[in-house]
Amino acid sequence: MGAPTQLPALDPKVLGKLRWACRRGMKELDILLARYLDEHFCSASSAEQGAFRRLLETQDTILYRYCLGEQPPPPEFAALIERITASPASRRNLLSHQSSGAGRC
Whole-model pTM? Predict the structure, then answer.
């Protein structure tokens, strides 16, 4: 098995557009998505980066359910959602907002 392929550096404008797309209608999602972008996106494989870009097209309410485990994500997003929500603090924040009714109409 060969060494991992080095990904080319991303254009700051592209990262800026992705950061803007991470801004959602729910603060919990803003935090999770921005954290993934800051901590994992640049070192992710090109396949995972593509999956993240497609994931950003998902409706907030559906994405929120994926992150809470209330709805299974499509297979192409399953590992990515797991990585996004892997931090114990991330999961705790989502669950505390859910139980308090935050983010619900």
Answer: 0.75
